[in-house]
Specification:
about 500 residues; alpha+beta; five-stranded mixed sheet; rod-shaped
């Protein structure tokens, strides 16, 4: 159920993170589309304002020159006496200043005469005059635009006014971020560039045609660059970022909690195995000692000197075995580095190894095995604790005996040599070997390698963990090489005593 719940929660958290990211991405995309639309609308409006300003400028100059001509004509006409006959109509045209406010002039209906037979000729003449004046006005406007388009882009462009139009249009459309712009001709020749204009980043640059009603060769192009556009667009997703961060953090904490639960479960199972193994390991010697004690106390059994010697030997051997098991259990309390007190001194590693091998020779021979010893270390002196290092050698040899193949005679190869400034010991056997999946765990406390159908292997899962800890405290290294079904090789490297 733990793994089922873990899988469900991880999947739901992943879906939640995806939905949050998708929402943030959607918001950013919408913000980008809105920004693009606002900028393009602003550029179009600024281009239109620039063209309109140019037209108004030409019209205003023409009107001013026309007013000056009318004023001079008025002065001249004032010098000529005015004559008129009775019944004649005199039409006086008074020039009016043109107001440029984008509104068409309205004809006053109050001044329009009533349509009757008496004034029909007059209305006809006014209509003809209107048509004529409208044609003249169209010709004047066409001439203005033609003359304007004939001028170069450099002379027509007012960069200060274009900057003002761009700023005003962008603000009206809700774009309040810095921008820079450059202007070039239709042929790509640069006309103007802001001093801090940056041409990198095509996604940050927008283009608009200037004077688009002119011939294509006379048009201009303005490119507007927004250096902080990313910050502006991604700013809308800032509210989603903390939510995604908190969700991801909760997922990590949950996964770590599940990992701790699984680890504690594994440690609990190892401790249960340890208690079971300890019970079996203690039960056998205690039963043997109890049986020998009963035979000694049974007066109905005749006891010879040989029987006394056998019973005493059984009690002594089983007591030694029991004491050895107790010492292995006590090793568990030494795994904290602060509790291990090393009594370091200069030691002869070759001599220590030979002593341990002499003790193990009888046990190996009883199991039908043999030992080949190659002592090649010319400098065997190391600095360490004799008791703990002796236990290290003993544990490695004990493992080789325990995990021997039941149908193959045990063969051990013990080799010492010097590698650089280090003493190296290798212990190789032809036992059942270790699977690759177990190699990374053999130095963990309570971990025991699965032995398949072999059920006579006893232990607490502390021996190799103890070896690894002691070698580390002596500033050494331990390596293991094994192939399942072929055997195992342990290599210990310890620093030599420096002169």
């Amino acid at each position: 159920m733990i793994w089922v719940l873990t899988t469900v929660i991880v999947v739901l958290s992943a879906i939640l993170l995806y939905m949050q990211w998708h929402n943030a991405e959607t918001m950013v995309r919408m913000r980008k589309d809105q920004f693009d639309e606002s900028v393009l609308r602003s550029l179009d409006q600024a281009s239109h304002d620039l063209e309109r300003n140019e037209t108004f400028h030409y019209l205003e100059s023409i009107v001013m020159s026309h007013e000056q001509e009318l004023d001079s004509l008025a002065v001249q006409s004032s010098r000529i006496p005015s004559q008129r006959m009775a019944g004649d109509s005199v039409i006086v045209f008074q020039p009016q200043r043109i107001v440029l406010n984008n509104q068409l002039p309205l004809l006053s209906m109050r001044s329009r005469p009533m349509a009757n037979e008496a004034n029909l000729p007059f209305l006809e003449s006014v209509k003809n005059a209107y048509i004529y004046q409208r044609g003249v006005l169209d010709e004047v406007i066409y001439t203005i635009l033609y003359n304007a388009s004939e001028s170069g882009l450099e002379s027509r462009l007012n960069t200060g006014m274009l900057d003002a139009y761009l700023s005003d249009a962008l603000k009206r459309n809700g774009v309040n971020i810095p921008f820079h712009f450059r202007v070039e001709t239709a042929d790509g020749e640069e006309v103007f560039r802001c001093s801090d204009y940056d041409s990198t980043g095509a996604d940050y640059t927008y283009t608009q045609t200037l004077f688009r009603n002119d011939p294509s060769s006379k048009m201009g192009v303005v490119q507007v660059h927004f250096p902080t556009m990313d910050e502006y667009i991604w700013g809308v997703a800032r509210t989603m970022t903390p939510m995604m961060g908190f969700t991801f953090l909760l997922l990590i904490i949950f996964c770590y909690t599940v990992w701790q639960l699984a680890r504690q479960k594994k440690v609990s199972e190892m401790k249960n195995d340890f208690v079971n193994n300890m019970t079996h390991e203690f039960k056998t010697p205690l039963a043997s000692i109890s049986l020998a004690a009963q035979m000694l106390s049974d007066k109905s059994v005749d006891k010879t000197e040989r029987m006394y010697d056998n019973l005493a030997g059984i009690i002594s051997n089983e007591t030694r075995r029991l004491r050895f098991q107790v010492e292995k259990v006590l090793q568990m309390s030494l795994f904290d580095h602060d509790n291990i007190k090393l009594k370091e001194e200069e030691l002869d590693a070759n001599g220590m190894l030979e002593t341990v091998l002499n003790t193990f020779q009888l046990r190996i021979k009883q199991n039908g095995g043999s030992v080949d010893t190659v002592i090649e270390a010319y400098d065997p002196f190391i600095y360490g604790d004799e008791m703990h290092l002796t236990n290290v050698f003993f544990n490695l040899l004990d493992n080789a005996v325990k995990y021997a193949k039941p149908d193959v005679d045990l063969h051990l190869m013990v080799h010492t040599e010097n590698v650089g400034d280090n003493f190296q010991l290798s212990i190789e056997d032809n036992g059942i070997g270790i699977q690759k999946s177990d190699l990374s765990h053999i130095f963990e406390r309570f971990y025991r390698v699965h032995t398949g159908n072999q059920h006579n292997v006893k232990g607490f899962g502390l021996g190799l963990a103890y070896v690894h800890t002691i070698i580390g405290l002596h500033h050494g290294k331990i390596k293991v090489e094994s192939e399942y079904g072929q055997g195992t090789k342990f290599v210990i490297i310890l620093p030599n005593v420096k002169d």
